[in-house]
Amino acid sequence: MKTRTEWRTRKVLHAVDGDPELIDEEYRVDIPVPPRDWDHIVHNGVTAIAITLTAVSIAWSTVSAGALLDRAAPAAAAYPAALAYDAAWITCMGLEWLARHDPDRARAPRRAGYVALILAMAAIAADGYLAGGMATAAAGAAISAIAKGLWHLVLNHTALPLPERDRAWLKARRGKLGARMAIAAQQRQLLRLQGQYDALAAAYGQAAPDSPDTDQDTEPGQQDSLSGPARRMILARAESFPNTTEEEIAEHLAGHGITVTPDTVRTVLDSRSDDTVRPLRPTITDTVKKAVQSGLDADKDREEILSAVRAAHGTQVPRDTVVRILNRIKGRAS
Questions:
Q1: Residues sharing a CB contact under 8 Å with residue 223, sequence separation 6 or more, in sequence order
Q2: What is this structure's pTM?
Q3: What is the mean pLDDT of each run of 10 residues along the chain (334 residues)?
């Protein structure tokens, strides 16, 4: 048995004058060397030969088919186009290798590869016949056939067959995972479309399809005579711009040819619900009313009311908006 020597280091205890210390010590180890794997060496050699012959085949078919096409087209276009002949059967061979465990899937690229090989050999043979006769045509066309045949043998040797039940299991599992991937891709597209629609609806004051468009989401006493589009526009405007007032929503709808009063807008906003009927969030009007109900005077304490509104809805709330709401509240009280 062959061995190879390897030097290693280990810690040993060594004492000088009775004072011990751990020191490094080198020692030799004889490691068995496994015999040469001639199967692996031969396989690598055959694969290298196949790759080399493939490169030769590509070069030869490009020169031959390019010379043939050069008779009808410029060389700059003829020779790059000639690459398609061998590139086609090499691509099909790669697809056949990827599907080596599924004979049904490997059948199509295998047949397409042979068709592409025949076309490449025909182009090479035609150029060889025009240049030197039948012998040149046969010898030139055989190069691609040899390269293809060698790869066929290499693939058959490497692609070990699977039992029938294992192939069936792989096919079933591949189908399930493929279906999940397809559904996930379609769902991703649907989400993208939904996002585009939501952005469009928000930009033009329209509501999503699941927004309430009938009076079924309102409590008794809160019914209104608005049409579905008008209700959707009110709800979409309120959700897109939470700090807007009923008057501003009414003005927005008036710009689209829909006439509503601020009280009607208020009724629609109060009717929106999910599981229970409640406003999604307090409006500026709600905050102003709450401030007045807490004891602040609508005339004397306007600054305090404005501060409370801006604290709840942001500093961008205009002073004129709060003043209009206070005037409306005073008008109702009188």
A1: 215
A2: 0.48
A3: 89 88 91 88 92 93 91 89 92 91 88 93 92 90 92 87 87 89 88 80 58 39 53 77 78 77 81 49 80 81 84 81 83 67
